[in-house]
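# nightly structure sweep
# worker-07 picked up a monomer target from the shared queue
# config: single-sequence mode, recycle default, output format = C-alpha cells
# input follows
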Amino acid sequence: MTNNGLPRPARRLTFIHTVPALEPVFAALASERLDGWQIAAVADESLLTRTIERGYVDEEVLFDLNTHVQKASADGSDAIVVTCSTLGEAVDKLARKTVTPLYRIDRGMAEQAVQQASSIGILATLPTTLDPTTRLIKATAQRAGRHCTIVSKLCADAFDCLRRGDNAQHDELVRRAFEDLSGEVQLVVLAQASMARALEREGADKRYLTSPELGMDHIAGLIRLSRMSDY
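# output follows
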C-alpha cells in the first residue's frame, strides 16, 4: 500500500536482449524471483551483430543501447537488465549516469565464481564476450581480496555453427573445449548462456557456472534491498 492507502502499482522490469530466443527464459526466471512484477522485453540483435563485426562495442552501439535504456526508463521501468555479456562493460558505463537501476547479467556469476574457486576457466564462443568476461572475473576477484588464477579459452567456430543453425556441431565444439579447459582449473565460467545446453544434455561434470540463474538471483536481491526504502 502507498501512504494514501491506495494499492501500489506493479513494479516493471525490462530486459534488453540481443538474442530474441532468450526472452521466455529470462521472463520465467524473473517471474520466479520477483513476484508481482510486470516483465517487459526489448530485443535488438544488431547490437551484438555490429559488435562482432567490429570487434568491440563502439560509440554507435553504445548510443543505441543507451537509447533502449532511456526508452525503457521513460516507459516506467523500475529496473532494467541487459542480458548480453558482450555488452557488460557498456552497461557499467551507462549505469553510472542512469536514474533507473541498470544491471548486467553476469555479475552474479562472477561473484560466485571467485568465492568458489581459486583457479577459474573462462570459456566463450566469441572474443567479444571472452575479453570483457575475463576482465570482470579479474576485477571481481580483486575487489573480494581473492587471488584467482584465470585461464581464458575461445571455443573457435562454435558461434558460427550456432548462427547457421548447426546446433549439434556447436554443442560438440563446446563439449570438447570444456573437457580441455576443465582439466586445468577448478571451475569453468561459461561466458554465454547458449553454451550451457551442450553440457546439460550430456550430463557433464557440473563444475561450471552460467549467468542467467545466478545473475537473476543477484539482481533480484539488489532490487529487494533497493525497494525496502519505499516502505
